[in-house]
Design a protein that fits this description.
five-stranded parallel beta sheet, about 45% helix, cytoplasm, transferase, aminotransferase, binds 5-amino-5-deoxy-1-O-phosphono-D-mannitol, alpha/beta, 10 strands, glutamine-fructose-6-phosphate transaminase (isomerizing) activity, single chain
Length: about 350
């Protein structure tokens, strides 16, 4: 049941800290049979395949695997991958991400990869789903059933599993040890406690809603590992509030999207204070100079530096930059949730959408 929550989506947003803690506990307690275990040291490439929000989790993982574990990663939409039938590396592995484990395109992509003798690992939420049954090995997100059509806790739980895999890959490949050390003793604990803090910011998030009041379109910008979060923020907003929204890599602005900017266009900038921050700030100034109203989602330092450039600011807790996608996700989820509630849409059952896309 929804308990005291107005919608399943809000309940599921709030379940994220416990969902992630459970997922990580589950991963720590499994012992993988040697024959089944992926050895990242032996791979020369990892191919990630998924759809929708699960695809965005894969995109975050690409930044993590490449930077931390020095592993080449390609991420593809299942619907493209399955028909492109790309050549596969002899020393490659494939990773399929799916909440339901029944998404038709992802399942077909898995079958194609298996026919090419690839090692196929899956991250699923539903045990015994088709994708789980047909994979060489399965890692589960333990976030419980997700009822809301818009994926929330499944997404961050997928990130939790992927983060676990990245750490393992770094260890096996003897790579990125400094980065891993910089995460501190328990990055998992840091993520869970900072997520709690973001959930306490609901009132602050409601204060920025005037930004979307009369909007017919919105743009989300991010760079690096927050680029997928910009994509996810835009997808969430369009799914449940029906506002047309696009996510862009901030560096792409000049290559087209900036033509859309005028006084009526809200721009959400997802930019923690990291090595790319300065770059994003100059993008922020470019859109502001053209009249856009800007919402900056950042941490303490980022918000301080940009006070005078942004119309609205949501300050999130400061975490290690690698962990930023976890908490920025929660902020964009809440933003789209409250926008949808204000617009009076059917948050849990948005029009034209099904929870599980079992047909093409
Ligand atoms: O069950 P899956 O993770 O395979 O589903 C993939 C997409 O259909 C799903 O993430 C979809 O994009 C959600 N509605 C996003 O909120």
């Amino acid at each position: 049941s929804k308990g005291s929550y107005e919608h399943y989506m809000l309940k599921e947003i709030h379940e994220q800290p416990s969902a992630l803690a459970r997922t990580w506990e589950g991963l720590a307690s499994i012992s993988v049979p040697r024959s089944k275990e992926v050895d990242f040291a032996k791979l020369d490439k990892l191919q990630i395949v998924a759809c929708g929000t699960s695809f965005y989790a894969g995109l975050v993982a690409k930044y993590w695997f490449e930077r931390v574990a020095g592993l080449i990663v390609e991420v593809d939409l299942a619907s493209e991958f399955r028909y492109r039938e790309p050549p596969m590396s002899k020393k490659g592995g494939c990773l399929f991400i799916s909440q339901s484990g029944e998404t038709a395109d992802t399942l077909a992509a898995l079958r194609f990869a298996k026919s090419k003798k690839q090692y196929c690992l899956s991250v699923v939420n539903v045990p015994n789903s088709s994708i789980a049954r047909e994979s060489d090995y399965v890692l589960r997100t333990l976030c419980g059933p997700e009822i809301g059509v818009a994926s929330t806790k499944a997404f961050t739980s997928q990130l939790a599993v992927l983060f676990h895999l990245v750490k393992k890959a770094a260890q096996q490949r003897k790579c990125g040890q400094d980065l891993i050390k910089s995460l501190g003793r328990s990055p998992e604990h840091d993520v869970v406690s900072s997520m709690h803090q973001v959930l306490m910011k609901e009132n602050r998030i409601k204060e920025v809603l005037p930004l979307f009041k009369d909007a017919t379109s919105a743009i989300f910008l991010g760079r690096g590992q927050c680029y997928p979060i910009a994509l996810e923020g835009a997808l969430k907003l369009k799914e449940i509030s029906y506002i047309h929204a696009e996510g862009y890599a901030a560096g792409e602005l000049k290559h087209g999207p900036i033509a859309l900017i005028d006084e009526g266009m809200p721009v959400v900038v997802v930019a923690p204070y990291d090595r790319l921050f300065e770059k994003v700030v100059s993008n922020l100034q470019e859109v502001r100079a053209r009249g856009a109203k800007v919402l900056l989602i950042s941490d303490k330092l980022g918000c301080e530096m940009c006070k005078s450039y942004a119309d609205y600011i949501i300050e999130l807790p400061t975490v290690n930059e690698i962990l930023a996608p976890f908490i920025n996700s929660v902020a964009v989820q809440l933003l789209s949730y409250f926008t949808a509630v204000e617009r009076g849409t059917d948050v849990d059952q948005p029009r034209n959408l099904a929870k599980s896309v079992t047909v093409e």
